[in-house]
Amino acid sequence: MPKSKTVYEECDVLVVGGGMAGTGATFEARHWGRDLKIICVEKANIDRSGAVAQGLYAINCYMGMQWNENQPEDHVRYARNDLMGLVREDLGYDMARHVDSTVHMFDEWGLPMMKNKETGRYQREGKWQIMIHGESYKPIVAEAAKKSADKIYNRIMVTHLLMDETKENRVGGAVGFNMRTGDYHVFRSKTVIVAAGGASHIFKPRAVGEGMGRTWYAPWSNGSAYALPIAAGAKMTQMENRIVLCRFKDGYGPVGAYFLHLKTYTQNANGENYEKKWYNQTKELVGEYIDHHPTPTCLRNHAFVQEVMSGNGPIHMVTKEAFQDPHLETVGWENFLGMTVGQAVVWASQNIDPKYTNPELTTSEPYVMGSHATCSGAWVSGPEDISPPEYFWGYNRMTTVEGLFGAGDTVGGSAHKFSSGSFTEGRLAAKAAVKYIEEQKAKDLKVSDKQCEDFREVIYKPLDNYTIGRNEITGGTVSPSYISPIQGLQRLQKIMDEYVGGISVNYMTNENLLKKGLELLDWLTEDLENVGAEDYHQLMRAWELKHRTLTSQCVTEHTLFRKETRWPGYYYRGDYMKLDDENWHCLTVSRRDPKTGKFTMEKQPVYHIIDEKEKKQAS
Ligand SMILES: Cc1cc2nc3c(=O)[nH]c(=O)nc-3n(C[C@H](O)[C@H](O)[C@H](O)COP(=O)(O)OP(=O)(O)OC[C@H]3O[C@@H](n4cnc5c(N)ncnc54)[C@H](O)[C@@H]3O)c2cc1C
């Protein structure tokens, strides 16, 4: 146990993670809670943290209601279609009706927005996307959070939630440690908003060894957003809906601007349009969903994966035509310089000039997130005005643990929020958290010193494991008594890859594989009691691994439960290859019992609120 000090804080609103949703939550908590004590805790530094750390080139969710470009209902239909029918429409609608106001604030705060010279409106990249010069996006939203919070703590990894000891199933704060000083931090808080991003590196990545950090999703996002609520007994939803991305090979540079703005297109190695080749086969699997417009993201992946498996790869993006236009050529390169500079570096290193060579595309390893073309995450209450009883329990975006809220990637069921929608969801969660406090729902909270001390022991144990175990090192880093975080991570990735549908099996799994995967994950969990950390940075790695493992268990349980292939191209259940609307047009919900560690699964109804509302109005 280190001799570091313990730092205590008491507050009203504790925001865990200062990314897009966390900065939105911190900002909005101050708006409604003028006199409240608001703290934001971040694993990195909020100026450059989370998925937007490097900047973005487009805000992917903007309705444009002021110009009647789109309405929130349209966005719900869009997200529903892309997710093969299964979204929480109350959450999506609630986000969409508020997202424009968020974007207008970004504009006021100085985010450089591109404007259409003819109309004066924001420059559209696609129906939902608007273009920005977004290198400074994250520092700008961080500024708003810094001005709003009583205190921002950087470099602290939150590892556990504290629970109230007077009332069961009520949150009481969180604990973590500073990975630079090693100090132990205790935050007793009336409410907690978890906004800790998604999960990369739970499945074996395509880039291994020296290229291991090269993933599409932020490599530092480790599933705390899921592990924290799961460990506290909160219900989760759609965790099987992991996402696979089709991106430029090796650098994972974005393709959105290429498709939408540059009008580039894809073809196989023989120069053929391969997507239509797979139409009949896909129709056999998913029925009329293949006829929807736009084609759902997973189904486009499906055609890609099938084409490569049939021996016609690699797949290329045809850039040679668009790049003859100097303006489009500039946009193509700037697109990377503003958000994924690594792609430009990869092309330079491989001598690829997209003006003369069509670059290769690839499908990524799977990731878990709740804000993109996917909606894994916590099962939360919706807003009171539109949510049906099954979706509403008092406070918007509150999980099934009282006082524990979620936003952004943390929240399940509400896809296509992206950066602006995640910030907006943070705002919605914070507003509800303040209301929860004002309505005295956090009265008489008790978090004993013993609870905090017990967690302290648990958190620093990997340091002890190393200090004792290193005496037995037999050679190099090999010790009979502990495993290092990197060894544990590679073991996790291998299990998830081979048994739960990763890249090496072309995203294929089945009941036998999933059951075996769960067994291996149990043993890994047991062995992680012996993970060793030689310094505070490795201690962070150890806890990241534990959070990734718990997230993986939940993903596997969900994948086993849903007996159909709802999203071919994201993953396949080989034993149930067809989409089965009769039995599985529903949301899957899990809960892990914090005492036994066992998961229970249930189905929850999908309500198509938007069109039902309109049908009622028409009749
Ligand atoms: C590669 C990529 C490209 C994208 N492109 C676009 C785009 O072009 N346009 C667009 O609008 N959106 C885009 N998005 C989506 C957008 O980035 C996300 O929707 C958004 O960042 C989600 O917000 P969040 O707050 O949930 O997560 P994040 O913004 O990732 O924030 C999570 C924060 O939590 C912190 N954290 C994690 N664990 C802990 C812990 N245990 N303790 C304390 N802090 C912790 C992290 O350090 C991070 O700061 C993209 C996402 C990715 C991954």
Quickly count the helices: 17
Number of strands: 19
Main sheet characteristics: 7 strands, mixed
Rg over CA atoms: 23 Å
Quote the distance from N terminus to C terminus: 68 Å
What is the percent of helical residues?
Answer: 25-40%
Strand content: 5-15%
List bound small molecules.
flavin-adenine dinucleotide
General shape: globular
Write down the overall mean pLDDT: 96
Spans with pLDDT under 50 lasting ≥5 residues? Answer: none
Structural classification: alpha/beta
Overall description:
There is one protein chain. It is built from 17 helices and 19 strands. With about 625 residues, it is an alpha/beta fold. β6 (about 155-165) and β7 (about 170-180) form a beta hairpin. α5 (about 225-230) crosses α15, α12 crosses α15 (about 535-560) and α13 (about 485-500) packs antiparallel against α14. The protein starts with 5 loop residues before the first strand and ends with a helix. The mean pLDDT is about 95.
Structure in a nutshell:
With 619 residues, this protein is of the alpha/beta class.
Give a quick set of tags describing it.
619 residues; alpha/beta; 17 helices; 19 strands; binds flavin-adenine dinucleotide
Fold blueprint:
Layout: E1 6-16, H1 20-32, E2 38-41, E3 56-59, H2 72-82, H3 89-108, E4 130-134, H4 137-148, E5 151-153, E6 156-163, E7 171-178, E8 184-194, H5 224-231, E9 236-237, E10 246-248, H6 256-260, E11 265-267, H7 279-286, H8 297-309, E12 316-318, H9 326-337, H10 341-349, E13 361-363, E14 377-378, E15 404-406, H11 418-438, H12 449-469, H13 485-499, E16 508-509, H14 511-527, H15 536-561, E17 572-573, H16 581-584, E18 586-592, E19 599-605, H17 609-618
Parallel strand pairs: 1-2, 1-8, 2-5, 8-15, 16-17
Antiparallel strand pairs: 3-4, 6-7, 7-8, 9-14, 9-18, 10-13, 11-12, 18-19
Helix pairs in contact: 1-4, 1-11, 2-3, 3-11, 5-15, 12-15, 13-14, 13-15, 14-15
The site of flavin-adenine dinucleotide has 40 residues, from helix 1, strand 3, strand 6 and helix 11.
